[in-house]
């Protein structure tokens, strides 16, 4: 009897714990969450000219276990090469991160001067091979002389190749690869580029959603109002004249936090709407301008002369202009000048609906300003305000704008996180999944052979959570499946494979 009672109590505790975890994960996803897709398979090769070269435990680089690893070991061949290719479920533009180490000896960027990395789409290289250097490598992210390679590819990719070339003997002839992952920032209605610094969803409040208890919650001199169904859930709107919202601590130096940055948001307006992040002031008006304080220069995009500007997606990137060595030397001749190495200007680019509208380089030192949103006459609206502490590539900006599935200028071939196509899929073949996001019912369509195809659905960790033989174009996911992003893979009777990302909401 005691055994049964104890087992029953354990079951109840486990059920409560599962419910709590499920509730917290859904709550977190509702606000926005960085999710990760890990490599699910690999290939490797060793040059025949490399005596003593090898790769040990290659399968350990697959999956999300950071405690084991594959080992790329160099021998004495002068022309030798050891390489490993890690393969993801689908092609995407998501941010890439690879956890590496040396196993023995200190890890530095200089030690990796003969190690390269490149992305691929299928078996075709994206032409972005580069040495693993300090621009993409962070040391000591983990203990034991480990590091993290991070960058955003500019072309869709479904695999990454790491190569160790002859001449890297200072690595003690070993490079460890622990794991590789793609990252995205998922909200209920879109999948966005990973790792935003600030995210204001405006879903009925002015909180910064990544860290709602931070100092970056906005406040104003009048209560704000919110509107349903502008872009994603609620949006901030203005029913009063001249309201301005600011962060609660305007002394925060946003320029020091991210001198290079990307600002994006949706907006429609009557009269004007102004967004200020650090030195970058964005004004949506009859014309749209971006100005740098202290100068008369502007980026201007002329709209049609309507009193009401329709809904558009705006993105602004800021890339600081560093002084040259000669300019630094000249600056240092001035006594008590502590700003010689700081940026002397910036290149600001404006994208409207994901397309580049204008770009200009401003000169002059940048003052420190706060974070604020101000509006003019009745009816100005803003939604989905994101700030990244980096300048996103143009292809990623286009993906960001198209991810909400609102714009009309997103062609079927435009890469978006929710519709990722494997390189092996011919462009003339069409395979669609709808609706996406879905509440559980999915309809497949296209000009491919669907009858009797095999369906498999995996979570972002690569675990299969559903599989079935397709007998109808429409089917239902299990009601016990939690919200989140999944990979749907379809294999036709003629063995062709198609994959799509789907977002499940309940």
TrEMBL record:
<dbReference type="InterPro" id="IPR026444">
    <property type="entry name" value="Secre_tail"/>
</dbReference>
<feature type="signal peptide">
    <location>
        <begin position="1"/>
        <end position="30"/>
    </location>
</feature>
<dbReference type="InterPro" id="IPR013320">
    <property type="entry name" value="ConA-like_dom_sf"/>
</dbReference>
<protein>
    <recommendedName>
        <fullName>Secretion system C-terminal sorting domain-containing protein</fullName>
    </recommendedName>
</protein>
<dbReference type="Pfam" id="PF18962">
    <property type="entry name" value="Por_Secre_tail"/>
</dbReference>
<keyword id="KW-0732">Signal</keyword>
<feature type="domain" description="Secretion system C-terminal sorting">
    <location>
        <begin position="434"/>
        <end position="503"/>
    </location>
</feature>
């Amino acid at each position: 009897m005691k055994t049964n009672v104890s087992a029953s109590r354990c079951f109840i505790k486990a059920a409560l714990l599962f419910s709590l975890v499920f509730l917290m994960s859904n709550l977190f996803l509702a606000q926005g969450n960085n999710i990760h897709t890990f490599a699910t398979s690999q290939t490797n090769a060793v040059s025949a000219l490399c005596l003593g070269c090898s790769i040990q435990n290659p399968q350990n680089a697959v999956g999300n276990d950071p405690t084991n690893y594959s080992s790329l070991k160099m021998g004495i061949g002068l022309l030798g090469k050891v390489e490993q290719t890690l393969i993801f479920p689908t092609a995407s533009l998501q941010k890439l991160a690879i956890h590496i180490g040396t196993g023995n000896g200190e890890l530095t960027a200089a030690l990796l001067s003969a190690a390269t990395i490149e992305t691929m789409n299928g078996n075709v290289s994206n032409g972005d091979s580069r040495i693993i250097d300090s621009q993409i490598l962070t040391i000591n992210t983990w203990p034991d002389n480990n590091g993290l390679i991070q960058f955003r590819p500019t072309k869709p990719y479904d695999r990454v190749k790491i190569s160790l070339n002859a001449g890297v003997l200072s690595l003690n002839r070993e490079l460890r690869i622990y794991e590789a992952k793609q990252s995205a920032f998922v909200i209920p209605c879109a999948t966005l580029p990973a790792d935003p610094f600030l995210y204001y969803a405006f879903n009925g409040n002015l909180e910064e959603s990544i860290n709602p208890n931070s100092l970056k919650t906005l406040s104003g001199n009048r209560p704000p109002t919110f509107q349903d169904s502008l872009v994603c859930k609620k949006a901030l709107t203005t029913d009063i004249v001249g309201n301005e919202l600011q962060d609660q601590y305007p002394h925060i130096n946003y320029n020091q936090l991210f001198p290079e940055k990307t600002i994006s948001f949706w907006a429609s307006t009557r009269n004007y709407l102004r967004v200020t992040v650090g030195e970058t002031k964005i004004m949506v008006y009859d014309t749209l301008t971006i100005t740098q304080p202290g100068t008369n220069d502007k980026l201007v995009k002329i709209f049609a002369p309507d009193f009401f500007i329709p809904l558009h997606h705006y993105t602004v990137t800021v890339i600081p202009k560093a002084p040259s060595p000669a300019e630094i030397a000249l600056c240092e001749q001035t006594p008590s000048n502590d700003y010689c190495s700081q940026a002397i200007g910036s290149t600001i680019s404006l994208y409207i609906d994901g397309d580049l509208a204008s770009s200009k380089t401003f000169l002059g030192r940048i003052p420190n300003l706060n974070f604020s949103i101000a509006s003019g006459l009745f009816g100005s609206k803003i939604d989905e305000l994101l700030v990244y502490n980096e300048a996103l590539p143009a292809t990623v900006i286009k993906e960001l704008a198209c991810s909400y599935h609102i714009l009309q200028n997103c062609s079927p071939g435009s890469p978006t996180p929710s519709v990722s196509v494997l390189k092996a899929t011919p462009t003339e073949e069409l395979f669609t999944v709808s609706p996406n996001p879905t509440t559980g019912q999915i309809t497949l369509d296209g000009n491919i052979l669907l009858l009797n195809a095999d369906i498999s659905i995996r979570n972002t960790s690569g675990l299969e959570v559903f599989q079935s033989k397709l007998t109808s174009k429409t089917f239902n996911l299990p009601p016990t499946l939690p919200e989140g992003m999944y990979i749907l893979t379809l294999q036709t009777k003629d063995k062709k494979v198609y994959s799509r990302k789907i977002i499940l909401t309940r």
